[in-house]
Design a protein that fits this description.
The chain is an alpha+beta fold. A hairpin with a 2-residue loop joins strand 10 and strand 11. 22% of the residues lie in helices and 29% in strands. Strands 1, 2, 3, 4, 7, 10, 11, 14 and 16 form a 9-stranded mixed sheet that branches.
Length: 321
């Protein structure tokens, strides 16, 4: 079996970033030109999403061509328009007789305070991410301060001045012929922790900046106030499993456990936590097996998002501690 360093090495999958380093924002697109079976799980209380209802099992469209993970809060949904237009230009989409309509789902995170509040991912940036994906097929995705991860921060419970830098992470594992990979942009209100030891990796800094404190301690310091809706962890799980739409949705629900294992707290009213699933339909596999493998890769991708980030925009990253 081949070793997979990135989801771009899963047959039929393309992925790319577009990043504005100066404005601290960007977007990441995951593409399956032939169409994948899609699913989604939205657990955060403040999501900014596109075409999630279309992925519900009872709907009639059973194909997904791309998932867009973007910064820019709700403004960043414009990136999906550029992705749609560029995919149509490349003859990718659902054939409806008079045109091919690309089915593009997406979710955004809030990074407006990190760089420029007036610069957000737009249609041009979305189109550029698609072009980058097709220009470098099979090339591993960059991690850290790129794409949707460019303006990500974590540990905002005690205020932005004690937050840390996070970013975009990825992980791929295989079990026999079954392959699962995950791409995630981590912009959580709380801490990223090691899912085995619960050791904090990035999050709320102590008042003197010397250590990362527990979320419980941070809440005690902050009192009853919660940060505004400036958070969200968004991700896409890609697998070569053969799944129905309902099964892909179940895999998204199962893999949401990864958020709870690696992020403290997860799924709050001030997060827009969302997980997409894209299944290319190459390998027969039990849904629970796919779900367990998806959970494992998503946990590791969340950790990678914290450890791959670089200190920037006034925020310290785990790599410098």
């Amino acid at each position: 079996m081949p070793e997979y360093a990135s989801i771009t090495q899963i047959p039929g999958i393309y992925a790319g970033h577009a990043t504005n380093d100066e404005a601290a924002t960007g977007c990441t697109v995951i593409i399956c030109p032939k169409g994948a079976t899609g699913g989604v799980d939205v657990r955060g209380g403040a999501p900014a999403t596109r075409e999630t209802d279309l992925l519900r099992p009872e709907q009639t469209v059973q194909v997904l061509h791309a998932v867009v993970l973007s910064g820019g809060s709700a403004f960043g949904l414009a990136a999906s328009v550029g992705v749609t237009d560029e995919l149509e230009r490349r003859d990718v989409g659902l054939d409806v007789g008079v045109a091919k309509v690309p089915i593009v789902s997406g979710a955004c995170l809030f990074d407006l305070f990190c760089g420029s509040v007036s610069v957000r991912p737009d249609a041009q940036m979305g189109a550029r991410a698609v072009a980058n994906a097709f220009e470098h097929p099979g090339a591993p995705l960059d991690h850290g301060n790129v794409g949707a991860g460019c303006g990500c921060t974590v540990g905002k419970v005690a205020g932005l001045e004690r937050a840390m830098k996070a970013g975009l992470g990825e992980c791929v594992h295989s079990a026999g012929e079954l392959v699962c990979g995950a791409v995630v942009a981590v912009n959580a209100v709380g801490n990223v922790v090691d899912p085995v030891s619960s050791r904090p990796l990035a999050g709320v800094l102590s008042a003197d900046g010397s250590t990362i404190i527990s979320v419980e301690e941070a809440f005690r310091e902050a009192g009853t106030a919660m940060p505004l809706r400036t958070n969200t962890t968004i991700s896409c799980v890609v697998t070569n499993a053969c799944l129905t739409n309902a099964q892909a949705t179940k895999v998204a629900q199962i893999s949401a456990d990864a958020y709870a294992h690696a992020i403290r707290p997860a799924h709050t009213t001030n997060d827009g936590d969302t997980i997409f699933v894209m299944a290319t339909g190459e390998v027969e596999a039990e849904v629970d097996v796919v779900g367990m493998l998806a959970t494992a890769v998503l946990e590791e991708a969340i950790v990678d998002a914290a450890l791959s980030a670089q200190s920037a925009y006034g925020y310290q990253a785990a790599c410098d501690r």
